[in-house]
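[job 0417] fold request received: Methylated-DNA--[protein]-cysteine S-methyltransferase
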Amino acid sequence: MSDKESGIFSTIVAAPFGAVGIRVADSLLTELVYLPPRFQEKDPADFLSEKVATQILQYFDDPDYQFDLPLRPVGTTFQNAVWRGIASIPRGQVLTYGQIAKQIRSAPRAVGQACGANWYPLVIPCHRVTAAGGLGGFAHHDDETGFHLGVKRWLLAHEGVAEYA
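[job 0417] inference complete; emitting C-alpha cells
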C-alpha cells in the first residue's frame, strides 16, 4: 500500500475482513470504504475520525450497535429513498432488491445500483440486501470469490444471517 493510497483517508481501522477507510471533512463523515488486508491501520487525523473509528470497532464487537454519526448529505432523491429502506432492515434480517423496489415503487436493478452507490456502508447496511436467488452483488462487485462478496458474507454472518456463509 502506498502513502498515496492511504493518504486519502482520515483514518484506517483494521477489520476482520481487511480494513475500513474513513474520510471526514467539515465535521461530517464523507465516506466509508471497505479495504483489502494490505491496508495498514492509520491513526485518526481528528476527533470525528476517532469517533467514527470507535463506533466501527464497537459494531465489530456487537452487531446490534447503533451508529450515531454526522453524515454529509449525498445522493439523488431516489438513492436516498433506497438507503432509507435499507436502513430500516433490522440486524439479522435481509430483504431482496425486489422487496426494496416494491416498497419504493421501483425496479430491482435500480435498487441494486443505489445499493452500490452507498457512501456509508455499515451505517447504511446495504449488505442486508440480497438477490432473490442468492447473495447478489456488493459495492458494484459480483465476483463470487472476490473481496467485496467476502465482506458481505462476513457482515451477514456477524449479524446472524448464516445462510449466505
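[job 0417] notes: The chain has two domains: 3-61, 77-164. The chain has a mean pLDDT of 93.
[job 0417] exit 0
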